[in-house]
Give the backbone structure.
Amino acid sequence: MKSHLLEPICCPKCKSDLQFNGHENPPSKLSGILVCQKCGSEFNAGEGFIHFIREDEVFRFSKREEFFRSVYASLYTPITNLMFLLCGGTKNARREVLAKLEIRPKSSILETGIGTGDNIPFLKNQIDGGFYYGLDNQVRMLRTCAVNLVKWNCSACLYRANAEQLPFKDNSFDVVFHLGAINLFQNKKQAIDEMIRVAKPGTRIVIADETEKASRLFAIFVGKHEPIEPPMDCIPHTMLQTKLEIIWKGYGYLITFRKPD
Ligand SMILES: C[S@@+](CC[C@H](N)C(=O)[O-])C[C@H]1O[C@@H](n2cnc3c(N)ncnc32)[C@H](O)[C@@H]1O
Ligand SMILES: [Zn+2]
């Protein structure tokens, strides 16, 4: 039987099947290589996760952003908790988003941009016979996430991948969500189309990030960007129950919609 880590994956480039050559037991010691059966792309597995992208493939707006992102990565949780004070506190801020997820027994949950996994403790009790999948493009975040999972006595499958080119088969997940980086994605429309592709029909998709009000506060660190607009124009008209809400005391937006059956 395939490990959970290998179950939903496909080639992020051409979406074809991958052949795994290596050891998969225990999953935390997974090591080997995955080869796409169609385009021949190769991806390494090691440190307990699969590397679908390399360091030189991670997109950054500027060197300055790269520097602050690496500092942010090492202090992610305390800095985020501090920022969430403005939004009503970490617990309230995260719950404002996570309450929209439709998690049922045995749900497979995908978080794109999982970071250090800080949403997992809030969802732990709802993962009843299901499984949590997370991807991030920063290996530092994934390493911290792996350490946190042991600390919290939780399990999740982790992948180093670009949220704009998901390494998962169509219609794989019961819950698909993103909290906190889509404003800086190179291609938001592609990232949203990918979330829709990998969600099972009928899934409610949840996306949250900072509003312009928050972005103005942080421009000093990451540099100036175009004014932030929630990416409502990227949600296809074929989606159902599409809704935009302002959350986090005005510092965040929340988009929800449902993939049709
Ligand atoms: C603000 S953090 C949010 C982390 C987590 N979702 C949370 O709620 O704490 C955003 C995360 O998205 C990741 N990220 C940014 N751009 C990404 C991309 N194109 N693909 C995958 N992950 C990305 C960052 O490395 C970072 O860990
Ligand atoms: Zn391929």
Q: What stands out?
A: The CA atoms of residues 61 and 203 lie 32 Å apart.
